Amino acid sequence: MTTTARRRTRTAGRRPAAVSLAVVLLLTGFHLDSASASPGSGAPAVDDPSVPPGTEPVSTAPEIDGDNPGLRMRDGATLAQSRVLDIVSIVETEGGEERREETQVSLKFALQAEVLFGKDSAELTSRASGRIAAIAAEIKKHNGRKIRVFGFTDNLGTYQHGRVLSRKRADAVHGLLSDQLNDPAVSYEVRGYSEDYPIAENSTEEGRRKNRRVEVSFPTGGAN
User: Fold this and answer.
1) Which of 83, 138, 157, 199 has the fewest CB atoms within 10 Å around its CB?
2) Which is nearest to 173 in space by CA: 219, 131, 218?
3) Average pLDDT of 184-196?
4) What's the number of domains the chain is made of?
């Protein structure tokens, strides 16, 4: 065998190994140029801040088996009817003395007890008339017909004392509001809830002050 023939034989024997290596690289998805790419070469930088460490790019969306039993509704089940959720707008004064909560179908005002009453009292102060008159104007503007006047206290003192005080305060606001509206077509629901339904934490004086309140709410536009 000549020298040239032996060289061809040795070269031909090495080609299968090179082809196998290429196949392995393709199967594993390894790219030699990605590890050695220099800045500006077009390859993403390893420390690219837009790519969180440890994340992997997803090239394709995961496949979902539509026949999977776990994705099926049980026999006899139906989808609930779609509905539009209310958009709630809440406006509160800086000290939280007054709070206005409005949805597409209702309006609620919350006045802290200190704005309307003295300490542990159900007697309206001189400045209470103006605050309640502003609420009466809103009721007229929105054609309110069913008015709820609810009183609340903080969790200090006994629950029963809170029930009595919160109801007396609600009654006082209802009486003045009714006089200002002077409309026999308007009906009222008046209740006292003591410390139930807090809107803030009772662990701080700031929170307790917000919970000591009277709320006036009504459906807008004459809605029931």
Assistant:
1) 83
2) 131
3) 97
4) 1
